[in-house]
Amino acid sequence: MKMRRAVLILTLTMTSALAGCSIGRVNAPPSVFDLGLDAKPVPALPARAPIAMSLQAAPALSDTSMIWRVGDSAAPKAYATVRWASSPTELVRQRITDRLSRQGPVLADRVNLQMPQLQLSLMQFEQVFAEDGQSSEGRVVLQAVLLNGRAVVDQKRIQVQAPAPTQDAAGGVAALRQATDEAADQLAQWLAGVVQGAPESTPRRGFGPRPGPSYEPAFDTPAKSSAPSRSAN
Predict the structure, then answer these.
(1) Contacts of residue 23, Cβ cutoff 8 Å, sequence gap at least 6
(2) Higher pLDDT residue, 15 or 179?
(3) Do 195 and 115 touch, CB atoms closer than 8 A?
(4) What's the sign of the alpha-carbon dihedral 167, 169, 172, 174?
(5) pLDDT tens, position by position, 30-42
(6) pTM score, two decimals?
């Protein structure tokens, strides 16, 4: 009985001591990152007619966690002391909007149903480490669908990997910044081939100047030839 009481007293003493050690301790705030300034030159492409753009993402990319994983593991993890300034969904939307706007206006909503609409799905946005932990890369995967009204004009899957300069969260941020910019540039090049150019001073087929806010379709009309039709990427 005395031995049991002694063990109980010792346990309570240790618990109180450990609790006392944590009193007053304040955890350091997490480091917060964004994609930085958009200073990278954009591809030299012709001016493009206005488009509307929307972006949705996988549920795991809807908060500010910075995700990483090892190889093709099905167990993604999040850095405990690192956060994004906004959700990856919002960061990628802002970055792509900024870069695509260099070729032509990018709107959040259609002016009318004839305006081209770019629907993007962000499938992956994470730092992926090699099995040995000696290297890592930022991976960005986008699925793009271009609509004319309710009709699908074309679609494209974009997958970009960029090497991380360091094997930590900061290296992952740098790699994801590079991968996002490259993905946006691939989108711009793809759109240049499926959406007509900017309107000219004289009316023509496409987004020609017209009274009021409405526009005509901006999609190229396929030429009659024996060449195979465009296939979806």
Answers:
(1) none
(2) 179
(3) no
(4) negative
(5) 899 999 998 888 8
(6) 0.73
